[in-house]
Amino acid sequence: MAKPATPTTAPVTTPAADPAAKTAEGTGVGTTTTTSDTTTTKTGSPHTQEAKSRFSAALNEAKAGAAALGDEAKERVGAYRSEAKVRGEGLKTDARGKASTLANDGKHMASEALTGLSRVIDENCATLDEKLGPKYGDYARNASRSLQDNARKLDEKSIDELAEESREAIRKSPATAVGLAALVGFFFARLFR
């Protein structure tokens, strides 16, 4: 007679009573424990494996998308930076040109004003000779010549030369420069009041 077959122990599905037998999701579903062996193997149902692979694929796709967006943002920032730099250089050049033109126009107007004042003084020298004496007429003539000389020098010099002379004068006597600046500021404040 044949010997009866000894039953082998089949895997038994257990609920999540044993914390070591839980799956990664922590549900305990899909874990199997064998009684002949004390080790716990984790196998999932085909749906769990498919969900994991889809989730992993979606996560990888999201990472790749984020990296692509980051690269695109870096490219755009670089493009905007270079465009702003080019525009800034253009504006800087335009501003320098306009400032130079305005400075030259201002220099020319100041020279004309000095020349005009010199003419007015020159025209009134005879009146000063008659009413106050020849000494005051000579003072007026000297002042008129000095104004004409300064107007001529102002016309002959460039803006850069005038700026350098101004810096030199300020270095030589800073107190006088501060006093003149305060005086000019006072007159402008009174003028625009």
Could you explain the architecture of this structure?
- With 193 residues, the protein is mainly α.
- It has a domain at 48-159.
- Helices cover 73% and strands 4% of the residues.
- The longest helix is centred in the middle third of the chain and has 86 residues, at 46-131.
- The radius of gyration is 48 Å and the shape is rod-shaped.
- The model is unreliable at 6-41 (pLDDT under 50).
Quick one: overall form?
Answer: rod-shaped
Total count of helical runs of at least 4 residues: 4
- The residue-averaged pLDDT reads 79
Instruction: Order the strands across the largest sheet as they lie in space.
Output: 1-2-3
State the distance separating the first and last CA atoms: 129 Å
Q: Which helices and strands, and how do they pair?
A:
Elements: E1 12-13, E2 31-33, E3 40-42, H1 46-131, H2 134-156, H3 159-172, H4 174-191
Summarize the structure.
Strands 1-2-3 form a three-stranded antiparallel sheet, with no helix packed on it. The protein contains four helices and three strands; from the N terminus they run βββαααα. A hairpin with a 6-residue loop joins strand 2 and strand 3.
Main features:
mainly alpha, 4 helices, 4% strand, three-stranded antiparallel sheet, rod-shaped, 193 residues
